[in-house]
Structures are given as structure tokens and as C-alpha cells.
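Complex record, two chains
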Amino acid sequence: MATKFRVEVLTPEGELFNDEVEMVSTRTEVGSIGIRANHTPLLGMLTPTELRLYKSDSDIVTLAQGEGYVQVSADGVLLLVEEAHQKGDLDVADLREKVRRADDAIAEAESGSEAERRARRDKRRAEAFLGVAGEGDAAAH
Amino acid sequence: MSQKDVQNRIASVKNIQKITRAMEMVAAARLRRAEQRISSLRPYAGAIRRMTRQAAAAAGGEVGSQPILAERDEVKAVGILLVTGDRGLAGAFNSQILRAGIRAAAEHEAAGRKVVFFASGRRGVSSLRFRGREPQGDYTGFSDRPAYANAREIAEDLMTAYVDRDVDKVEIFYNGYVSALSQVVRNETLLPLQQATLLEGGEGDEDGNSQDQPDHGHHALVEYEPDPADILQRLVPDYVEISIYRALLESTASEHGARMTAMRNASENAGEVIEDLTLEMNRARQAEITSEIVEVVAGAESLV
């Protein structure tokens, strides 16, 4: 059995997860990352994706993760995320609407403006959540 | 008033009292939840602050030059964010924010600065519209239970307006939560963000100082994805989001506190009205009895 370590998922609305796991799978700005026990200390910027917390090979907690940060230290792993949702709580119609609105905003915004950057972030988040909800491909069209 | 009329009035005041009592109890329950949500934010805000310190130390002790940190030499336009509730019946809760915000706007305009309003809560939005002050951003439907995403939306609008130079400064007005009985209007400058607020003091980091300071040596061993400077690019705007989120939460707690107090007063007033009316009803009944006795006595006398 793999060595377990402490993982905490913290959002502005409270603690979502605090337990021992064997592995954390998530995504930073640099790329997908899997964290096991005794990982090098790390400070990373999280991008929206499916966050998987492996309590064991068969017991996996899955969350839709928004933007945030991951800190790996000797004490364990701390995931700070702006928002995290259970798969079942995702509203596909609402997310599609968000992608559409973000597309409109991108088309409208001056290129290089803060408004444009922000619309791209909104779009990326909504698309990632659609992916978690199993609607990723439908959203691409 | 006849006895019957007074009885009807007592019944209707009692109904009103039942409603205000129920509203008081609902507000009390929601207040407790709102207080919990304020304390839920603290660990997150503290952790963000510790990460900012760590990333800033790794990036050479500076948070870097970010557009939202840059102070403008000349302030031509000011953004004012008013945080109100979606509903009334909460005493001076909404009106004191509007009054403070509009007074500040008048001062800016007297000094030749343009004012751009942003408002959260239906009360604030509709009052501004009524006064012919169309808000550039309006955010409604969540004042009972604001989510972080609501704060992020507002923060992004404000930061976009600041960075794209629609405004040169942003102020926020909200009801700060002191206790269920006491709420005070707070006025803070959101943008430009002060460097000092990033790296010094603040809540939730009592333990942070002792943990992070001694081990400068180990920063070299920490991996960063991406570079610390790039991580700071996003950590810094988080402070604006957190400030707004905290203001929304405090405003929500204040709203429930104010409504609880307003409804308690209403229930007490109703109680007084019921007492007065009961007295009046007894008097009316006594008068009726007296006149009946007089009639009986008079009738008996005429028989003698």
C-alpha cells in the first residue's frame, strides 16, 4: 500500500476536504501533476480541471476545481481553490451559457485589454467544468 | 369604537406581531450562518497571505509592479461600490450606505472628479437608478448568501475598470459587522491596492509569521510552477477579491442583524399597541355593562 499523506482543500467558503490520501492528481499552469508522499516542496498555480484525491485505488474523491494554488510541504498538501464543486452540482446549461457569454465578451473586448484576459479566464474555467461534467466535447462546438 | 371593532383590531395587530416575530427568528438563524461564513473565510485568507509572503520572498522580497498596485498621479474618475441588500425591512441598513456613498460622490464631483457607481443588492441598484445615477455594474440576487464567485465578478469588473483606466481609484461602502445590535458604515479604498496590506499583519496569520520567517534557506529548494513572479501576478488580485468577499459577508451578517433588531422593535411595538387596545376594549365593555345596569335599575324603578 502506498504511503499516505495529509491533504487539505480549502475554499473561501470553508474546508472541503481534510484527509489522508495516497495521491493527488490536478493541473498547474505548467501542466498535469500527480503528487505522492514525500514530493519535493512546491508552490504552484492551479488551473481549472478535475481534481482527484485518491484515498485508495478504488476510493477516489473527484471535484471540479477552479483557479487556486497548491502548496506541498513536509506537513502535507494544501490546495487553496477559489471554488470547487461536486460533479453532481455542476449546471451544464449554466456553464454553456457562461462559455457563450465569454465568447461574446472576447469578441467585444479590445485585444490586449484586461477585459479580454478576464473573458478568456472565464471561458477556460467554464470549459474545464463542462469537461468534468462529461460534456467537454459538446462544449467545443 | 365599539367592543367588536376593538376586538378586530387586536386580532389584526396580533397577526402582525406573529409575522414580525417569525421574521425576527428567521433573521437570527440566518445571522448565525452568516457569522459562520465570515469565520470560514479566515483560514483561506490567512493561507493566501502566507503564500504571498513565500512567493514574494522567493521573487526577491518584492510583490513586483502590477497595474492594480500602481497609484495614479492624478485622480480624474472614482469608482464607488455600494454594498446593500436585496430586501428592505432592515432599519437604516440600506439607507445609511446610500447616504454615505452619495455624500462621497458629491464631494468628488465638487472637486472635479467623475464618479462611476457600482452597486450590489437590489436596494442599492434601484435607489441609484431612482436618483438618475445608473450604476456601471449591478450585482443582485445573492445578498442573502453571497458566494466567492459573486465577489470575483465584482472584483474583476473593478480591476478591469482600473487597469483599463476608466477609473483611477475605487472605494467601497458597506455595513461592517460589529454585533447583532451594531453595524457601522465602513469606507475603504480597494484600488490601488496598498503594498503594505499584502505583506504585513491581517487576520489569520498569527501562526504564519513564526512558521515562515525562520526558514529562508529552504526557499531555494521549493519548486515553483510557474515562476514566483508569475504566481504573484495572480495572488495580488486575490486580495481585492477577498476584500470584497469579506465586505459582502459582513454586509450579509449586518443585514440579518439589522433586520432582527428592526423586527424585534416591531414586535415590541405591536405588544404595546395590543395592551392599549385591550385597555380600550375593557373600558368599552365596562361602559356597556354600566349602561345596561342603569337601564335595568331605571326599568325596576318605574315598576315600583
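Note: The helical segments of chain B are 3-58, 93-110, 122-130, 148-163, 195-199, 206-212, 228-303.
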